[in-house]
Amino acid sequence: MENRMKELRKAQGLSQEGAANLLGVSRQTIISIEKGVYNPSLPLAFQIAKLFDKKIEEVFLFEE
Q1: Is residue 6 within 8 Å of 52, Cβ to Cβ?
Q2: pLDDT in tens, 11-44
Q3: Given CB 3.0 to 4.6 Å as the disulfide criterion, which of 34, 44, 47, 62 pairs with 40?
Q4: Distance between CA atoms of 17 and 31, rounded to whole angstroms?
């Protein structure tokens, strides 16, 4: 699944560490999500969308 997390994070001036702290996850989790290696749980995906003031489908792009 593609995502816009890195783009949105940078637009808010957040570092990976800063985003991780705000979301209560490790920096490695942020790196893995941004690289598309790890798909977050649904609750975490909602937290991420809320952090960026976006709908979940605006952050995570599902392609069939």
Answers
A1: no
A2: 999 999 999 999 999 999 999 999 999 999 999 9
A3: 44
A4: 10
pTM of the model: 0.92
3 in Cβ contact with 57 (< 8 Å) = no
Q: What is the pLDDT of residue 7?
A: 97
Q: How far is CA 26 from CA 10, 19, 20, 49, in A?
A: 17, 9, 5, 17
pLDDT of residue 32: 98
Which residues are 61's β-sheet partners? Answer: 2
With beta carbons less than 8 A apart as the criterion, state whether 44 and 9 touch. Answer: no
60: β partners: 3
